[in-house]
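Morning. Coffee machine broken again, so started the prediction first thing and wrote up yesterday's gels while waiting. Chain of 156 residues, entered below exactly as on the submission form.
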Amino acid sequence: MALKDSIADLIRPAVESAGFFLEEVFTSNPGNHRIVTCMVDGLRPLSLDEVTVVSREISAILDESPLLTEAFTLEVTSPGIERPLTLPRHWTKNLTRIVKVTLMDETEVSGRLTEFDDVRAVLIENIKGRMKTHEVNFADIKKAQVEIEFNRKDEI
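Came back before lunch.
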């Protein structure tokens, strides 16, 4: 088993008991130092205080573990906007945000995520004041990502 998988198995219970999800663990060795990066997510964006609390929990566990015998730096992050939407909770977290979807046939569709269920998502696109509804089946999606909005308006 790879080191990152062993670390993930070790810290996952603490992350989940804190109310979060362990998305992924990365390890790297630049020079003579090890960096352990833990990507943690929640059902809503994490606050700095929440990241601090879960960082302390992870650090305490790793400090006591025989997995890492050499010095290491711990980094705890949350997924960035570029993370693809692949799980139902990713869609839940991004309800009302603008989502760009690339379909299997390479067609691109974007719009505000207004609803979704187990099989499809509904995106509302505002084209010069005219609303266009796109119903996209998850089975047809090759890639889906949140689009950055700098001047978000509360209406669709």
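The chain has two domains: 3-77, 88-146. Going to sketch it on the whiteboard this afternoon.
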